[in-house]
Every structure is written in structure tokens, then in C-alpha cells.
Design a protein that fits this description.
Distance between the termini: 70 Å
Order of helices and strands: HEEHEEEEH
Number of strands: 6
CATH class: Alpha Beta
Radius of gyration: 19 Å
Strand content: 35-45%
Number of domains: 1
CATH architecture: Roll
CATH topology: Nuclear Transport Factor 2, Chain: A
Shape: elongated
Largest sheet: 6 strands, mixed
Helix content: 25-40%
Structural class: alpha+beta
């Protein structure tokens, strides 16, 4: 018994490449969330170009080192964080793509008066470039939709970071 679809005989190589590209781009977006939650700042070189630009909530960071430093300063002082993303999309045009996904980023600081969590909900819009090492983000725009929880969580984290920097 032949279980193949009739469509299997007419696979379009261009369509297959498009699917592979979109899956690779989605993987980059997922790897970003994993890198943040696990404080793997070195893994960001597999996600961003060295001269990438990131616009995060009204702040602009130019270059991979500046992006990694911003991520570290936002997340290392927390007691925990978790990033979820989904509803991925990508429009591939040769070696360039515009891609995006929705996200929920939750920050946690234990015993914070008023609540231990603060979440940002929104979307990322990425300008991507195909490199010899795979797809990389050239520009990431974070567009917040709304926040939820206790903003004091971020304030405490920033105070912790400032104290850490003052003693190092």
C-alpha cells in the first residue's frame, strides 16, 4: 500500500527552502528566549550579528556586546525569569527576512512587597540576514503591548544591579 500523498511527487524545492528558512528563523527566536532565561550571553553570538541593533522599550543598543550587557543587567539581578514566545512568522526574500513573534517575559523577585512578578507582553519584529553560519538578527524591535504585575520587581532588580556594579 502506497501511503504517500499525490502531492509528494511534485515537491517544489523553492517551497521546501522557504519552510526550512522559516523553521531556522523560528529556532533563532526560541534560542533567544532560552539564552536569556539561562544567562547564556555567549549564545547571543549565534542569534545576533556582531553589529546588530536592538530597540528595547525606548532604549537603543548598538552591537552584540551592548545587547548582551543590557540583557545581563536586566536579568542577572532577578531571582528568576521566564520568556515565552509564539505565533512566529517570517517573510523570506533571498538572504534577508522580516520575522516576528509574540512574547511574554516574566521577571521574578521573591518577597517583593506588592507581588513577586512583573510581566511584559508584546512582540518582537526582526530584520534577519542569512550568513554562512545561518540566520542572524540584524535589528530587533521590541514592541510592548501591555504589562502586568508589580513594576517594583524591575526597580528592585535595577537597584541590585547598581549595587553590584558599585562593589565591582
Amino acid at each position: 500500500m502506497d501511503t504517500r500523498s499525490d502531492d509528494a511527487h511534485g515537491l517544489d524545492p523553492g517551497r521546501i527552502q522557504d519552510l526550512l528558512d522559516r523553521d531556522a528563523i523560528r529556532h533563532i527566536q526560541i534560542r533567544y528566549a532560552w539564552s536569556l532565561d539561562n544567562h547564556r550571553w555567549g549564545a547571543l553570538k549565534e542569534i545576533f550579528l556582531p553589529d546588530a541593533v536592538a530597540d528595547f522599550r525606548g532604549e537603543r543598543f548598538e552591537g552584540l556586546e551592548a545587547i548582551a550587557a543590557k540583557c545581563a543587567s536586566s536579568l542577572e539581578p532577578l531571582d528568576g525569569a521566564q520568556h515565552f514566545n509564539g505565533s512566529h512568522w517570517a517573510q523570506v526574500d533571498g538572504d534577508k527576512a522580516i520575522a516576528g513573534c509574540y512574547f511574554v517575559a516574566t521577571k521574578y523577585v521573591a518577597d517583593t512587597p506588592g507581588g513577586d512578578t512583573y510581566s511584559v507582553h508584546g512582540k518582537y519584529i526582526d530584520q534577519m540576514v542569512r550568513t554562512p553560519d545561518g540566520w542572524r538578527i540584524a535589528h530587533r524591535q521590541l514592541e510592548p503591548t501591555f504589562t502586568d504585575g508589580n513594576p517594583q520587581v524591575e526597580a528592585i532588580a535595577q537597584a541590585r544591579w547598581a549595587a553590584r556594579q558599585a562593589t565591582s
